[in-house]
Amino acid sequence: MRSGDQPERRISRLRNSRLYGATLSLLIPVAPAFSASPETGGTIGLVLTSWRPALYETPGAKEECPSGLQVSEDIQNEKTPGAAERLAKFGFPLNRGPNGELAAYAPMKVEDPIPFRELQTRNGFGLNLDGTSDGHATAKSCTHEKFRTPEGVAADNQLARVLGCTVGWRASGFNVEFAAREFASSSVNRILVEISGVDDERNDPDVEIRIYKGLDGLVATGEGKFLPGTNQRIDNRFPRYMHQTRGKIADGVLTSDPIPLANLPLLWVANPGERKFRDLQLKLKLTDTGAEGIVSGYEDLRIWWNNYSRGMNSHGGIGNYSSAQLYRAAHRYADGYPDPKTGQCTAISAAYKVEAARAMIAHPALAQPSTVTASNDRTKP
Amino acid sequence: MIWRGILLLAGAWLVPSGAIAAKPDFGGANPPVRVQMTEEGPVFATRQGRTLYSWARDDGTPGKSQCTGEHFTTNRIMAFVFPLPVAAKRRSCAEKWLPLIADKGARTGGAWSLITRDDGKRQWAYAGHPLYSSTKDQRPGDVNGNMERNADQAWRPALAPAGLPAGLKLVRRVEGLAIATADNRLLFRAKAGQGAALPLTPLAAPAIAQSRGDWTVTDSGTGQAQYAFRRDPLFLAPEGISDDAVLQSGEWQLALFKDATPVPPHIRTVMTLVGQAYAAPSGKLLYAFNCNYGPEDLACDDPGDAAVYYSTICGSGEECARQWQPLLADKGARPVGEWTVKDVAYPLFTDATDVTYPAGTPRVKAWAYKGRPVYTFADEEPGEMMGHGMWSLAGFGFYAVQVPGNHETGR
């Protein structure tokens, strides 16, 4: 079944099927998060399969990190006077704060002796979130440096300056690979994108885009790809992860309008949490089997650090970075949504490279795919 | 065809006793225990009602207890040796987990045996597992000792036979203790006058099965014997229909061995990414501190344990008190189910290099879940889950208090 099928056609087919009688009693009455779509035209369903920080990387990081990569929390601790005394006093090697705090939970209580290695390239990935070409301050942004994308477009992605010289977040690093695997394996991360009102999948000046949290798993192939066309149910228990905007498709590339405020669920290195974006935008190149592109917005720093620092990430030695430095860098580079009182920006522009597979997005009010199976059909012998 | 499959299953239930045991069989032994009903089901307990546990670590050393009175001062993690915090005041395993010591007249039999501890005392064991009670348990029915997050080191309540037909077990769900098959298929009973729109498969009983206690054997209507629990015939979801779908149909309800006890009226339940969790009246999630550390992976979240386990996460006593605020109990608040009211030190400590609950620290009356004080996280807004998993790799931290039986694995 083509993912461009209209909901009415799906209902019609369901009604005509012999499964309908058995299925009807199992439908869940759900108050829809949105009103029924008035859109005509086809629908494209996508399920995100990959989510990685969009970093510009060259071999050996020589171009973007000429002063080298960050050193781990372990090394920072060893070089900080009093390491042995702290260990004897508190019993744990990385309890570096005056009360034995982990730096992840009290980053401003810890000073690192080895300086932060700054990202020093103008090349990068992302979207132009503030609409400026030079990064001057606006009502919703602080002064910052822009990146230049491979297409020659000015882009905002200050998070890349925070993470870009950290080996754990660069390609094949522990954090990025761990997070990539769990992004696919955990249904916490199941993010669905439904594009409706599609008259032409190559060019359509006005489509509707809805984002949901999904419930179901992905089906991987032997090559590490994910099968398109799987059923993906909307997890209607979480209206806070449902968002809606409009967009356009030009030459097969979907560009969304900004979503003013969007929470997304994200299991991040074994740590269930969420991210809070302002002005969330999608730019996805659509293919017959899925999509790939950029998801970008201003990430609320309070939520980002909380999600980032908990659990396994509380020990920066794992990803070869220092929590104290990372926290400071994130606030130093913050470029979105200045606090009206202090002028300090409270959010940071962030871009993620995402991949998606086409999917059949099942709305709760239509059907529960897990119950629509052949063995439900009692008319069969 | 369906019946054939179910009968095959039923064949596995045939046991000499006729499959149903109403009371535990001590086999001639005289352990100083009684059976106590808890939220986890019937458990063996001391005569005073303290739940008894076994320890996974003992499984590897049959006839020997790993939980001793040794006071360790260091902890080895792989090749590294670390000093234990406030080792001079650290209690031993046997001081936190009290062995069920046998007296001179102890008589073994059946599943009940004795082991000899390192200090020469004899300790009761059930099914080969040495038994202990937990200092965390305060009232008959408490099962507060099994909230560790490291399953490999788990302390398990010593479950007593629940009188179920062989092949069935109890599963904790939000609704209570549900009866399920050994392969985790839930059992259902029809709601009054319903069940016809979504017929399920009767739970077949073997031909020799007899009625006993709450369990009866009825005729399913086709000549096949069917189990009933408290007079309600029991059913299974047929292949291809999930248990959740059965419940969502509205035709059926779970066959509950025991209803869940209520929670205090002002405690809310909210949906989170880790499943249903408890929340304060404000909507903020409730968190409990969970700590296990040391060579014995010993609980370190009791009053008088090292303060650094907390300060690692939240800093000074003052800052911890700002971040983690106990859910205060109203005057006259009374325990409800697994919820109790405790005197909680606030702040928990004054010196991060000493212990919690130091003398002279103010106390507040606060709610506790399974013996652990519950807190809201000050920097979180309702709907957020910022405090969950604020932990150290060493094995301690704060976690959302999840509604039992409704945990999402995130996997």
UniProtKB/TrEMBL annotation, chain A:
This is Uncharacterized protein. It comes from Sphingobium quisquiliarum P25.
TrEMBL record, chain B:
The keyword Signal applies. The keyword Signal applies. Keywords: Signal. One of its GO terms (biological process) is alkane catabolic process. The lineage of its organism: Bacteria, Pseudomonadati, Pseudomonadota, Alphaproteobacteria, Sphingomonadales. InterPro entries: Lipoprotein_repeat. Pfam families: Lipoprotein_15. This is Lipoprotein. It comes from Sphingobium quisquiliarum P25. Residues 1-21 form the signal peptide.
